Structures
1.
Amino acid sequence: MTGAHVSFEIQVLSDKHWVVTQFATDEAAAKAFADNLLQKGNHAAVRVVRDYLRGDGLHAETVIQEKTATVKAAADLSLSPITEAPPCAALADFYEGPARLVMGRLLRKYWDEMMVSPSEMLHSAPEMKRFGDKGTLLFSAIDRVSSLQAAALDEESKARRDVLTKAWDEGLARARAFAATKPKVAATMAEILKAVEKGGDEHPYLCRSLMALRLLEVRNWVGKLDVLLAWAEEEAARPVTALIDGFVADIVLSAQLIQDLLGYQANLGAALVQLADLAEGKAQPAKFAPETFTRLNALFGTGALPQAAGVLMARVTRELGGANPLSRNEPKQEFEVCHKVMHRLVHHRGVVGGGAAAEAILHRVSRIHAHLGNVTAAQALDLTLSALADTVHRVHYLLALLASPLGRGGMADMVSDALIKRIREAETIDAWVPARLPPPERMAAMAAANRAILANAELEPELKADLAGRIDEALARYLVEDGVIERIDKPEDPLALRAIRLIKFCGSGVLIDGKSLNLARARVIEHLRQPNFEEKFLSSVPEPGKAEQHLREFHRLLGQTGFR
């Protein structure tokens, strides 16, 4: 109903009372005005009241629309707990990975609320100012970090606070100087590099500043990643791949981004396996994962993102060693899921995540078996080792644990004893790796365990030589007892084929530089020492036209594998 006798009041709720804020003669316009007031977020509720003047001079009022604003809770920008903060000596250190990682973890709530990464803020004067204006957040962060750094350096906290405060002021001045040049936003990496080609010593900073300028235009994590991935795909970006890696590392610190990126995951354990796969570029996108995931996985696969891969693996180890269930919805599968995560991290070539992952696994196993009562460190270690598939897995795990703070501390003797015991008990290849695996895989696993022993910095040289030698003995015994070399060097095959197969076997990496490799090398030497070897080699090649080519290939392989 409209006309001269009808009008509309737009009312807002103020201090529990409805107050008229505007009049209108059109119903649609009145409702639109009310909606606009609500969207601005200044009022808890608005309504539109139709007023009709009756013929007797009285007014009839009807509420035709009433809406309540969704009350948005104040953002929680409190600091998150951290236990360490590597000391920074100069302003340049604040732009490096360790410092940004501390900022990312300490201020993770702030970054997710503002959709800004540490690198973006550190290279933007407006963002640094906005952060500094957030109450006491800046000073609280400086105080937290300075306390940790002071304890590590055995200094006074005030001295470290002064250092951090001075660095912040210098960084802000530097960002303001860049902003004063009124830089233009560059869309491509080629444009960025062209703009800073005469930057001299300031080239990296200027490049990062222009990158931040573009990324700050995008206020969601996946969108920022898309920009970075597009830059990484440019030919011009090769010299600055490390800078792109730094920004990606900052962004994948966000738990919110990780959830969006991974898509549907059955449980935390599955998510951790997917993150480990992503860090190595081996992941398959899950249901509802964005296209960005596939592109990012491909870039990880090239090895171009070591900083970002480190951030992902640090998240895996933190979550694995934490208190959140790996299988929340199906508690009975907790150990089964843990077993899958363990064997994703511990394999026949080593431990993904090193000592940190080894410690996290030990803590998780202790927690899973807490129903047994107070699980001691020795019991937790035995339970962990018994859950691993074979001796090679156990050796790699124990070596990684030895390199961890826990393994270098109170558990050092316990871990060393466990390592010595298991190696000395495993005298045959069947005690090291399951017989169901293909022979090359079994031998490669033992060779990798041997190399890991020799490379370990925590063991004494004499002990390393003894343990590594025992693995070599077991592998050499397998070569002899199973006739491995005889199966490669079949008498009925042409000499050229036998010689090339043997030399490739020597250089395949599945043998240990010791008794096992010497057995294979001895057979090669036996062939080389026979009279008229080269003539026999050439005559044994089925295609005479390719005989010389095969002989040249054989000599090339001889040189590669150390024969003289």
Note: The chain has four domains: 6-68, 91-243, 326-479, 488-560.
2.
Amino acid sequence: MEQNRRKTTRKKRKNGSGPVAHIFKALGTLLLSIFLIIIITMSIFGTVLTIYVLNFADTTTTVTLEKNPESNISRFLYDNPDYDAETDDPIDKYVLYYSMRNEYKHYLWVDLEDIPQVVQDAFVYTEDERFYSHDGVDFKSTFAAFVKIFLPNNSKRGGSTITQQTIKNLTGDDATEGVQGIERKIREVFRAINVEKTYTKDVILESYLNIVPQGTQKYDIIGVQAAANFYFGKDVSELDLAEAACLAGMNNAPAWNNPIDDIDNNNIRRRYCLKKMFENGAISEQEYNEALHESLELAGNFDYSSETVYEGELEDQGLTDWYLDAAIEEAINRIAEEAGCTYEDAQKRLYDGGYNVYTNVDIDMQRRMEKSMQDPSNFTTYDMDPEEDTLWSDFICMDYNGNVKAVVGSRWEKTESRNLYLVTKATRSPGSCIKPIASYAPALDQDLITWSSLYNDSPIEIVNKEGETEQWPVNYSEDGLSGNWSYRDYFTYQMLLKSLNTMPAQLIKKMTPAYSFNFLKSKLDVTTLDDLDADWSGVTVGGLTRGMTLEELVGAYMIFGNGGRKYDVSYVYKIEDAAGKVIYEKNDGYKQAISDSTSYIMNRMMQYVINDKEGTGRYAKLKKTDLVGKTGTSSDWFDLNFVGCTPDYVSGIWIGYENPSTIPTNDYENIGQIWKNVFGDIADSEEHKSFDDTFPMPDTVVKLDYCTRTGLLATNGCSSRATGYYKASNTPDYCYGGH
């Protein structure tokens, strides 16, 4: 029986049913499970990776390889007033205003046919020896580059072909770490494939050799032509093998491998370049040895040898003036909008991109206004030491299409470039200058008032911030003191010329503050308003949270001299890129902010602000030229503004202190007088003297007599009458006397 048990046990062991068999079975099951998990995980990862990559493929656009300019100098130009199309060369049509160049970054374009084969081969066999055989991507090198991303001290250049490097240099897409590095590589791969499908190898190589970085630690030299000029004082066509190897060899890290900053490093890299050229059969052994031992003769002196038609543009031009500051700012924003890039990137492009920027400047007016604003006698009522006179001021003038002709941002000589602040950036209270654009014009446009509507100089009731009902607003006299209400009736134009606060408040009550607020934003392009400004004070008397820029305020007034049209305010009317392509051109588009009839009637009413003996702008009256305008004073006499419209221009001036405080009226001229002092001579010398020449009465306006007792249209029964202007569609009733 014992023998039978032993046989049974042996059979069980033979059949693998012992403890060891159980262990192996469990281990096998575990390994199989792990294997299946790996397979499933890899499948999921592969699917996700495929979707991830395809997403980049779908969103990647082809990079355009366009010829860059002969130089990277961007030029600011203005129309030559003396140009004669019949006798002058077309190049004389424009005058150089300023040439913008990056002092430390230079490149000069050269066609591939003018680049020696030895230079082409040096870069190809150093950077991408399979350039002529691959389709934009060297997948063996690319895979190695992906691995390097996750290793310490990874190389930024690993795996990139000449096509990929060209794309990176054009786009600036250079994130190289972690996930960002993977994303960049994927973008780069698909872009390279697209580029290779679109362009020939010669076009790609030409672009690459013209934009390849070749700079030192101080100078950012771009392209082989600029590098040949800088390092050897030669044209690229004159380079020999050793010099070509010098440039191509340093390409992996030019700031550290260039022959000026570190000749030892450059010699090592030159040897590597020559070795690759020899291995690929581009040069003989004898050429290799001769070039390896050739002593380089370095120039180390960059010379602006680009062709130019503007004499003197490469000389030191000094500081930019106020107008150029604004024009540069606009050009940067226009380039950013066109290219879909950031402000910072657009600024780099402007400095290095060879743009032609055509400005609207009237150069004579600009120069005269700079001098006029620096003359203390134009501001003070007596001789004041300029060093003690800390009153700030700025000025702007534009035509009725919004083209700025002159702008000055200070009363003092400019001491630094790119610091235009007050005119285009600083926001200050417009005071009563807001009344024509926020209450009178929109109310007249809605037929709520006419020329001779009678309004009582009395307050309205509002609920203040404390929740209390108060009578508001008070009036202010010319000395800044608040006064009582007269409770007298005045015609619309009289309320405007006296700058009483009560009628605007009553108009805002009819229209609502929200309507006036939206009118300023949507119709007149005032962007500096805060949502809190949709209240009584903001739109009635200019008590805005932040205020308005002088540029926006003056720009809003153009509607009173051009039939109610609001154009974009601009310092630049056209921008061409390096290839001569127009990337921006100001069009003739405009907003019809108010009707032509409203515009004309407002123009005529505002003439009384200047011409009437009680008009707040009477000190600005010109000797020869029509003027309409409005003064504006903020509370506590912190800000004084004047905006004036002549037949040819709309201009404005602001004065105040850097840190707002009360302006002493005994020390300074009336704001209208200051405007006249600084701009009056220019205004009186305009081509047109009368608004009748530039802004004739439209058919929608009628000139009628009204009764000075009732404001109704006069009849034979009215003993006292005056003339007013009315919309043909909205005239008052007739007065039949008896008053």
Note: The two ends are 148 Å apart (CA to CA).
3.
Amino acid sequence: MGMSEQIKIIDLFAGPGGLGEGFSAFESAEGEHPFRIALSIEKESSAHKTLELRAFYRQFGKGEIPQEYYDFLQGRLGKTPKDELFRLSHLRRQSRAASREARQLTLGEDNHDIENAIRDALGKTPGNWVLIGGPPCQAYSLVGRARNAGISSYEPENDQRNFLYREYLNIIERFRPAVFVMENVKGILSARVGGNRIFSQILEDLRRPGLATGGGDPKLEYQIFSLVTNRGSGSDGGLTASDFIVRAENFGVPQARHRVILLGVRSDISWLFTPTVLLPASSPRVRETIADLPRLRSGLSREPDGFQQWVNAIHSSSRKIISDVRSAGLKEVADYMARTVEAIGSEHLDRGSVWATTETDGVRAEGLREWFRDPVWTGVSNHETRGHMRSDLIRYLFCACFARVAPEGRLTPRSTDFPPALAPDHSNWHTGKFADRFRVQAACRQSSTITSHISKDGHYFIHYDPAQCRSLTVREAARLQTFPDNYFFVGNRTQQYVQVGNAVPPYLAHQIAEVVFKVLENC
């Protein structure tokens, strides 16, 4: 399959490009890449810059990535691709192609420009192309709905985020992709608007987009398939809403991430055969996925920071706490804390860097080792710690030590396990609503879901190594999300965290791409 025969991909609500990365990285049995990202649309500036940089990377074949790309990852060519990298004359053609592919536009506001861009990207003979993407999910997520419930004037019927899927639907109706893949949070299954479950309406609209939009072809129909069971479509195959939930940890991803993913196939194709489903695979644990990355210390916020200040802060602040932990009946935890504190300071740790300054010998998980690695580059970027309050450092120390010695099944402490001296000053700490506000990503399990909340604080994402007293870095979160090591996230650290937390794991998307390819290869 040559370049001209590649299946075109249009990626809407692309974020940093997790879905697109999985499709573009997919190789057929013949070693060819059958999918090509023709266009990706994202409204947020930093995520768009990340998309644009990755689009540039994809302009080159395997083994042909220019040294200048890696120079950028090392901070030698500005902070964004357009600062210097895209201005290099011998790379101008690829830079322009990347900027055509990754566009900063907003669905619902820039629809005219978006439709023109899609028309240009597809060309006169688009063939059997694929639409991918996930409308923003804040209005569907359980956290978002809880937040909205606290707003007396909030009405779901007036929240346009509940209807962003209609922008996706309009593109389906207007441009008739052969296949679409739509992703969203699990909360969409129970979300209600006007007293009705919105998911049922979404399914019906996606099956008959022409009727749903009111002005399209009423004969245009899609069959909606599950990626985890082959019972057929939701209308006539006995599927339930939960059949559309894909649990990433069942498919080789080192993270318990549950998302609703719909596979839509145009009816003139879907009658030919039933798509295959994702093949279950064991997933590596957190330690196997991130242990090779350089060890780092956290930073001190709200006071002078430096390695010795950090060591002194932990030593001085932990003495009484360790005694309190022992008095609370957690002798093993207290002993482990004491041994850890004694060792802290014997090895000089820095805070890392957003730019690649160190190297790694690669992920230890054999199944994913090749997926993450770059054959010519072993650098580590986006691996920089954040600062924490002194009191949180000791809480992280306590939590990580607790995870090391706790009974099986208790790999992170609840609020009732904390001695009073470690309890944070939160009004809801003792209510039970946030009993696991501090959560260790245990070394011997898959991680919990990496969410955009990691940008707010690190309490849910504590590193399993107590001697580092910190939360996960962007690179560690990206590893658990299965982004390759040469995938760079542009923007400040908060923006990088948000990008990673909102993305679809590329390794999961890669497997979805195989299902889609099997649908289209004989059409």
Note: Confidence is low (pLDDT under 50) at residues 141-151, 153-161.
4.
Amino acid sequence: MKTLTRMTLAAGLTVAAAGAQAQSIGASCGCPAVSARTQVLMSTLVDPVTKNLLNANTTLTCNNLYVLDTRMYVNDGQDLFVEPGTVVKANNNAGLAHAIIVARGGQIWANGSESCPIIMTAAADPLDGSYSVQNRGQWGSLIVLGRAYTNKRSADGDPTATATNGVGTIEGLDAGDTRHFYGMPVGQEMNDDNSGVLRYVSLRHGGEVIGANNEINGLTLGGVGRGTTIDHVEVIANLDDAFEFFGGTVNAKYLVAMHCDDDYIDWDQGYSGKIQFFYGVQGPDNGGGALNQGDNGIEADADDAATNAANGGIPSNPTVYNATFIARTQTIAQADEGIEAKERTEGTIVNSIFTRFRSGLNLVGATGTNATGKWEGGLLNVKNCTFVDCSNPLRINGVNTTSGANWDRFTLTDGNLAIASGLIDYTYVMTQPGNVLTDRVNPVPAAGAATSTLNAPVDGFFTGAKYRGAFQPGAEPWTQGWTLAAQIGLDAAAAAGCTGDLNRDGQINAADFTLFVNAFGGNCF
């Protein structure tokens, strides 16, 4: 319970959301106001037949407002450069989704900054924070394909299989077009493959439906190599998964996913990269049907078919540190799982917070010959995570497990905690139209809370963080300044309008005074 009354806080929040001014996107980079930019149809930048870029090196500049009125392919040997502060608005094209597709051998260099993010969104989005997060599937989104390892096999027997082991056709696109292929033939994989840079990029309102159960993910990564840079990327209101990794070795850091309609992280087909600092929030509207938001926090698959193991396929084995997932609710029948572990997945998930899911870690087929049982053998490691307000913190083969050897390993050996409430503020209320918030989440634990005995490895990618969750306790969240969440005031609620709350726990009390006293006489240099 916040010390400030909900009524007092709500008054300030409603005014802030309703009066949200349009982003001055790129102003600090010298970009003009979006309304003053010259409109450019992206169909003029591609071949009218193939949809490949006309020029091998194409740059999108922030003095223009780009309208995605076509599919755009960055084909093998081509480079697409996107300046900081650039805005792309995509037209809806039901059944034939407009999307930007970076094929194997192509590269995208979208290198934004905190003050000048790159935004790709729906044509109708006024960019002032008022475009409803219920507007999903308004365009395709961004698809990046590479030449790193996948365990895709021709024997998988699904429409995405090709005749070549190690190569698949990416979900959501037509079979037969080699620009839709990802991965490489077995033995020819390029795990250090570089598909470019995605930094400070916001992908909004995508996931357009192409066919039955066939939508495009917010950011689709197929066989993408670890030479690619992905950090500070958000996916907002996508109709399918937020981030999906189809094999590959790519690493990703500082990711945000909100109001999406499927999983927030989904890995499959031998993905073995690293992820740190992930923040996911499902929508507060849980009426079912088109308004539902969210599925699993993490859906962890090893492959598409059990035959992959017999055919030499290596299971997924990624490493995740410091994630925070806030589910819409765990009380309704269709509620979801924090970690849905299935199909032989391996991997490591450490120092993360999962709130309000029906199940925390849900092991599907975890005994007998199904190799998901490697959890019991130590090949799927979930350690020092906190499961808040999750009815079933550990569920194995459909059975809720709260005692015995598996429970002891889960809690005592692996350091996982199951608590009824607290740690972060994970409830909020948003009304439509306009994304008006009358109660916000605060995903930042109080200073000194959410500690962990484990630290991420020092390997050139991970950042040392001996705490649980995506945000350093008591510190300003890294979402500020560049995300839609910050613009509409979704997170860091306690700090907004509560300036004395130094430890960001939603209360102004003796703990804040202690912080102030200890810092008194210091300086900020």
Note: The longest strand covers residues 196-204.
